[in-house]
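debug: dumping io for the single-chain case to check the tokenizer round-trip. Nothing else runs in this session.
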Amino acid sequence: MPNPKWRFSKTRTRKRRTHHKLDVPTVSTCSNCGSPVLYHHVCPECGYYRGKQVVEINAPKA
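debug: decoded output
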């Protein structure tokens, strides 16, 4: 199996790995209830998306 003839420098390796990082998801607030919501997702608290109710959320049974 072929092996590299020379070793890659630390700088070269680190330049390649600069893109191997996690992105923080962008979070906005729901216009209806004010809870944090991911962009382009239905609010898990109230079920609203862009000012309209799309999902019926049932209250937890006690």
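debug: round-trip ok. Residues 10-16 form the longest helix (7 residues).
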